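Revision sheet: structure tokens.
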Amino acid sequence: MSWDCGLRYMFSLSPALQQVGVCSMHDKEEMSRLEMVQRLAKDGCRFLQTQNSKALERTAEPHSVEAVRVCLKERGQNVLVLQRVSSEHPPPPASAGGGRQEEKDRSRSLSSTDSSSLVSDRYVVVSGTPEKILEHLLSDLRLDDGQVTAQGKEAETLLDDFLLTYLVFMSTTDLCQALLGHYCSKRYRGKEEGKEALYRKRKVLHLVSQWSALYRDFLHDDEQVKLFMKSLYRCALDDLYEYPSLEKDLKEFQKFLRMHRRHTVDEYSPHRKSKAIFHQLSLKENWLQPRGTQRETREVFCHVYVTLDSYLSVRAPVTSVAQDLLHAVAERLEYPEEDMVLVTVAYPEEKLILQPHDSIYSESMTTPGRLLVCHKDLTEIMNPFTDNAELQQRPVRLLGMNTWDVAVALTNFDWGLFNSIHEQELIYHTFSRQAGAGHTVALDLLLQRCNEVQLWVMTEVLLCASLCKRVQLFKKFIKIAAHCKALRNLNSFFAIIMGLNTAAVSRLNQTWEKVPGKFKKLFSELDTLTDPSLNHKAYREAFKKMKPPKIPFMPLLLKDITFIHEGNKTFLDNLVNFEKLHMIADSVRLIRYCQTDHMGNEVAQKDSQDVRTYVHHLHIIDNQQTLFELSHRLEPRV
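Predicted:
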């Protein structure tokens, strides 16, 4: 097949895959041909192969369109594999594609599409090298200037896939260099029309804006990104006089850089360009200002032990001092703060008293030892539970609280953690658990919170020595779980149900027999949602019906992403398996969907101060042996 423009494509059908087309290209300059293929495909043109008319008939069949793949080769090696897909919508206007009209007219003379057809073809990435994947995505990106098209949405989705997962196969430094190279590229100089050069530059600025919006604070501490943003901004300013239409894109770019100075085309005329650059360099670039170091902004759950096997969970910044934790513990235990001291226990017999203004965490964000609160004479405030005869008279504060208030406080706490999770944290957690330890802060806190709520349920039940009060506690927790489900907080909902289903609690047959039938029925209905059979079908169907914002059960979402990761190779024949990354990005985007609130369905509600204090500082026994000993003390084994 030959065209008037002198480009030659060779499509051949493999004996094994008779529906697959292969296109071979052998040097970098031929990439422009692939871009033309993409533009022609978007306009619905069919490719003719005169050497084999039977093969053409098979390839042109509607059922085989999805199977056509194009392979780009450089120096005999595959560098990009694309698959042709069809979109059921009218082809976009020619002006939106930025292509050459005479090339399109010439190709249409070879093969015209049926005007009544609503199918337009485009190419999506199957695999490739990082550089070629980026080059294709930039080529496929559409700037419709306010027109929302199905093809534009598809291209934006693929771009989103790339930005979410690029850290799996390339460094941020490599991405910055590649983007700057695409913006300043002179490869098409003399061949490329001014309109096409402008369109390419606008695409790069659009991609960088999307990247900045997606990663938010993740980019602010990266020196390479700061340097790249400065360089790209200077290049855009240099181009502003030659391409006045860039001014609109430049203003959008300024918003992401948080720069307030307005620039005009006249300001960047050739006679004032050097002066303009001076002004630009003297600007206070707010985007480039540090927004607080990791140590200043990171929060943790401090475990302040009140006995040898139980602690209070206190959410606090890593900059907290001893006095802050003492105040929180005293408020939760309703004990005079002046009668307590905070000590670190490095060895069983070695205790070090912390002064009020001593920092809890070192520069490495680790505690010097176990934190323990004691009397000033270093005696324990509470005796070990298994030897504590005072448990019979222990008041159960939860029984005096409204179950809806408790559910609201739990949901508000969880929402504060969930809403601060970045989608990239799931990528770091899945692909680079060790390297991404500093990038999964909010995710780690939410997972830890789920575990602590489960232990809290067990602790409250097993520390209640009275059978009557224990029955009331069961009723309370069942109602709290139902309220959490109504509030679309599936994280705490799962934690409470799992806490009631643990062996140490579920074996309390005497207690369960006293629970009224309607509560047992409600618990059975709620428990059905946690049923893992058929890949958690009950939970998935119920969660799908809930409107956002909502909090998913995060361990299950991470399990789904891990399953995709471990069941598919990241690299195929030394090429990035982009199909796998698309599946992972699709799962990760659930976070974004759950955090949105287009319908005004608020999750966070006003809660009670007393209940908030109680829920924020949960008292937890983290020793499984102690929990089972308490369970057998309450109801000895027959």
